[in-house]
Design a protein that fits this description.
single chain, alpha+beta, Beta-Lactamase, Helix Hairpins, Heat Shock Protein 90, 3 domains, 5-stranded antiparallel β-sheet, 5-stranded mixed β-sheet, 10 helices
Length: 396
């Protein structure tokens, strides 16, 4: 210890003298009255050289004004204080220090000065250096990302241009000759059927059937491409009304097959109306198509509120509340290992001779749900049915 403490504080200060933290005592007039050995180890200067305000000169000139103002105000108010500054060590090098002081009071509750500590925070300097390095690396990464995004945007524009060209071709160049094939084939079959052999009639029937499949494929591709439209506005959409509109289109086949619809109250969401007509239409159409011949079809539609943390079926779900809309049936189902494949473009789990379709309907559903910042997943069991789970955020 630099100076012998008074008897009253001697025992306490003796304990503090050996701790690896710079400790100090100051009188009410701000003069330093005691410093421990750690202070000497840092500064190389004894108490007699620091005890008044000599320690001020150890503060870095750039930190002196603000730090000493805090120090002076704390003594005036007799309140705790803390600040960070650079202080010069015995080698003449400035080190960052964390300085903290607590007021002391005597038995009469009169202000008796401060007790405090100074802690080296070299770690903080290392953190600052590391932060600056990380920021520099981040700037470099951002620049690389900007270039990559520019390339992606350029590729996206080329893709959109190609998609627009395809849409034009599908709308005009492909459909016109296809309509003529259909029209003339039906005309020949109707007018000349009596002159044909059974084999020729079968051939023309196959031509008409193939043309109809081609027409359906073109219509589905156009529908798939139209889900990218950006100038369509979201607006409050009552899903009950959307579903009712869809069920009206299926009314005849529902009655014919004896389909039972079990529907809960559905929410109103911010959506593109006609796109959700497509979602309900495609999923319900699938349920009817893949129903079992010997079992009456039951389609159950429910809606519940969930939070993102409870959505286990989909990865990387963003935080917040979601509407969970489930559409379940008791049809032929599917093997769960194909739960992702069924949403891929042109993917079919059954041969075209078993069930008609283009393999685009569910891909359209996924794209529409993604457009609405939502998620869709499917759960299936062979011979037990399928459930399509749609998660839509409360606010799009």
């Amino acid at each position: 210890m630099n100076e012998t403490p008074g008897k009253k504080d001697g025992a306490v200060l003796s304990l503090v003298d050996d701790i690896p933290v710079m400790a100090w005592l100051a009188a009410p007039d701000k003069s330093i009255t005691w410093l421990n050995e750690s202070w000497f180890a840092f500064s190389g200067i004894l108490l007699k050289d620091e005890q008044d305000t000599g320690w001020y000169k150890r503060i870095h000139p750039g930190d002196e004004t603000i730090c000493l103002n805090i120090f002076d105000l704390a003594f005036t108010a007799a309140k705790k204080f803390q600040f960070k500054c650079r202080m010069q060590d015995k080698e003449g090098v400035y080190q960052w220090m964390y300085i903290k002081g607590t007021p002391r009071f005597n038995a009469n509750k009169d202000f008796a000065g401060f007790a405090g500590v100074c802690i080296e925070i070299q770690e903080e300097q290392h953190a600052i250096i590391n932060l600056e390095k990380a920021l520099a690396e981040k700037d470099l990464a951002l620049e690389i990302l900007r270039k990559e995004l520019a390339e992606i945007n350029s590729e996206h524009k080329r893709h959109n241009t190609g998609l627009e060209s395809f849409t034009y071709i599908a709308s005009h160049d492909l459909q016109e000759p296809l309509r003529k094939i259909q029209a003339f084939s039906k005309l020949i079959l109707n007018k000349e059927a009596e002159n044909f052999s059974a084999k020729a009639t079968d051939y023309f029937s196959r031509i008409i059937s193939a043309a109809e499949r081609m027409q359906q494929l073109i219509d589905d591709l156009l529908s798939y491409s139209s889900t990218n439209v950006r100038d369509i506005f979201f607006k409050p959409t009552n899903l009950n009304a959307v579903l009712e509109e869809v069920l009206q289109n299926f009314q005849e086949i529902i009655e014919e097959k004896g389909v039972t619809m079990q529907v809960d109250e559905l929410p109103t969401i911010s959506a593109i109306h006609f796109q959700f007509i497509q979602v309900f239409n495609n999923i319900i159409s699938n349920a009817i198509k893949f129903s079992k011949q010997d079992t009456p079809l039951i389609i159950t539609i429910k809606a519940t509120e969930v939070v993102a943390e409870n959505i286990n079926a989909v990865n990387e779900v963003k935080a917040g509340k979601y509407w969970h809309i489930s559409i379940a049936d008791n049809g032929i189902g599917f093997d769960q290992q194909y739960h992702s494949k069924i949403f891929e473009l042109f993917q079919r789990l059954h041969g075209k001779n078993e069930y008609i379709g283009t393999g685009i309907g569910l891909a359209i559903c996924e794209k529409i749900v993604n457009n609405h910042k939502g998620y869709i997943a499917a759960i299936g069991q062979p011979d037990l049915g399928a459930t399509f789970n749609i998660y839509l955020p409360f606010i799009v």
